Amino acid sequence: RHFSPYAGVGFASSSILLTQKTTTGSGTSQKTQDNTLSGVGINTPIWKFGIRACLPAVSLSAEYKQAFGDEALNYQQFTISLAFRKLLNK
Questions:
Q1: How many CB atoms lie within 10 A of CB 59?
Q2: Rounded percentage of the chain residues whose pLDDT exceeds 90
Q3: Which residues have C-beta within 8 Å of that of residue 39, sequence separation ≥ 6?
Q4: Is the pTM of this model over 0.85?
Q5: How far apart are CA 59 and CA 89, in angstroms?
Q6: Closest to 44 in 3D by CA, of 18, 7, 6, 71
Q7: In this structure, which of 29, 37, 40, 62 has its CB flanked by the most CB atoms within 10 Å?
């Protein structure tokens, strides 16, 4: 009742950009612009499994996620999270 295992497949999409702000003009005609210097995106299928425990005061989950398909984009992630409930609802 309190423990919920899960597993699944999906698609992960993420990106990161490196930008630099440049300012042109002066006074009231001054303009700021973001210029992209570099960027990378990762779009890959993933599989994951985990377990979630829901107790009256806390919720705990552990999840393992791994990409598959393209070896150049392969990554793995293990996440543990803890959530406290009813701290604000006294």
A1: 15
A2: 33
A3: 15, 16, 17, 18
A4: no
A5: 16
A6: 71
A7: 62
